[in-house]
Design brief:
Layout: E1 10-18, H1 24-34, E2 38-49, E3 54-59, H2 62-73, E4 80-83, H3 89-101, E5 106-109, H4 124-138
Parallel strand pairs: 1-2, 1-4, 4-5
Antiparallel strand pairs: 2-3
Helix pairs in contact: 2-3, 3-4
Length: 139
């Protein structure tokens, strides 16, 4: 008799938390669950938002983002890391450094810059900084 052991794919999402649950970490959790994928999370920012707009945002300190990444990646093998809204280039650099220590099969960068309601979460300079930081780290 042949026994097959199926492994559930694991996505680690690094993004902002949306109190309205329509975007961010909460949306990633729902999307992964709908596809039968295990999803762990690292919170990079916490927002106060609803269907009307974003009323506030607090950025999680880089050292705590690094601690969250190490906690998850050192214990559970993530197949893919997916980023969402990252409020600073520093947090993106922390992710790249963590992935050097704990490699994954793929990095999916989704540079969320504007909320669904139209509120700006990150300016164009952040996007340029992400690509520059990524290029420097991989070359």
């Amino acid at each position: 008799m042949i026994t097959l052991k199926l492994r559930i794919p694991h996505v680690l999402t690094v993004a902002g938390s949306d109190s309205g649950a329509g975007a961010g970490i909460q949306a990633d959790l729902k999307a992964c669950a709908a596809r039968g994928v295990y999803c762990s999370t690292v919170i990079a920012a916490v927002t106060a938002q609803n269907t009307v707009g974003v009323q506030g945002m607090n950025i999680v300190p880089e050292d705590f983002v690094a601690e969250q990444l190490k906690s998850v990646l050192s214990d559970m093998h993530a197949d893919v890391v997916k980023t969402g809204m990252l409020p600073s280039i520093g947090i993106f650099k922390v992710i790249i450094q963590s992935l050097k220590q704990f490699p994954v099969r793929a990095l999916v960068v989704d540079p969320v810059m504007v909320s669904t309601s139209g509120d700006v979460l990150a300016g164009p300079s952040i996007l340029c900084g992400f690509w520059y930081a990524f290029y420097i780290q991989v070359h």
